[in-house]
Structure formats: structure tokens, C-alpha cells
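Entry 14. Structure prediction run on the chain below.
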Amino acid sequence: MPELRRISKLNPALGVCMALLSGVSMANTFHVHLYSKLANAAPNLNPEVLQSALTAYECARVHGIESSSRLAVIDFSLPSSEQRLWIFDLESQELVLRDLVAHGKNSGLASATAFSNIEGSHQSSLGLFMGSESYRGQHGYSLRLDGLEPGVNDLARQRAIVIHGADYVDQSWVAEYGRIGRSHGCPAVSQGTIREVVDNLKGGQLVFSYYPDQEWLASSAFLNCKSEARLAEADSPLGSADG
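Output returned:
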């Protein structure tokens, strides 16, 4: 354990999470290494959020979702005035970008506190998503999302929850209003980064949205790696308008 003690002194937050991971089997050595690299690449990302995202990612891999080489993490516990979106390249183990991201207008004002999987709720959803196909819609270049957690976000496609660019996701809004604008539930990003975000996440990459909701943390199929963790079927037609 000398190495763990050394890491704890250099980076207390990292040391706490490393300690939590120290008792796992050798099969999870890769998780520890990846966590360490990404934590160093994104020191402002809450260690608990990062660890949750990697737990969900690795559970998805166990259940056959192996196409992902990039992982986006959204920390909805932060106010919208802060850059709360991180995108990682898992192969190079580097941070691709960090930026602002909007939440749904009925999830909260400056901060998101309420989440839903219900069509028409205009709230954001938690959990693990897959970035699917890119397209051009009413908001321009956008990315369709498929929710992977049954009962939590699996109606994302039906609800037309997509990643799109929005003029209200901009630092000028923060300067004037103390927050960015809100969407109809979509994780909207800035117009300046939308192409980079979509191109990094389309074609099967993973997006993890976090909030310390105790019920979700305790029941999430991916955070607890339950046998039912799977790609939720999206049999319903796509909603008429993304937002």
C-alpha cells in the first residue's frame, strides 16, 4: 500500500477513491489505471462522479456494448453556469473537451434538481445513454441519444432527447443572467462546440448524466451492474420535435 499512501498525499480526493478501489480483484486493475489517468486529465471533475461514470461504462462493456471509445460525463449537481460536460477519449485516456451544457426547463432554474423519463416533462434524464446517429434537424447538426436504463431514460428517443447546439448555451448568458438558458430536456451545448461534440459521440459512444439522486444511485442497473443492464429497446417512433 505505499503507492496508495503516496497518491493520497499528492491528491487526497484521488486517494479516497483509490482506497475504495484497492480491495477489488486484479480483473479491475484497468479500471484503477483508467480512473487515475482520467482524474489527472480532469482534476475539476468530482471523483465520485468520475468513478460512477466508469462503473457504468464498464458494466455496459460486460453486457456487450463494446463500441465505445469515448465517454461523455455530465455532472448535473453543478449549476449551469459552470462547465459541467466532459468528453474523454478512453483509448488515449485524455480529455477531449470540457464545456457548458443545458438542462431541461422543468428540471430547475440555475441548477437541475428534478429529472424525468416522461414525454412532455421538459426535464432532463439521468443515467447512461448511447450516442447514435447524427442528423440535421430544427437545431442544425445534432445527435440522437438512446437511453440504456429501463425506466430511467429509455424513452429518450421517443422524447426526442438529443444533443444539439443552442445560442443560449454561452458565457454571455452567464455574464448577464448568472446561468445559461434551458432546453426541453436535451443536453444542449454551445454552437461553437456542437460539431466537435457530435462527431466525438456519434456511432455508439457513451454519455453518462449524473446527479446524487439516492433512489437512482441505489437502483441503477449500470451503477450496480445488474443482469438487466442492457440497451433499452426503442420501439416507439421518434418524437416530432427535439429540444
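The beta strands are 70-75, 85-89, 94-99, 127-137, 140-147, 162-166, 189-190, 205-210.
Filed with the rest of this week's runs.
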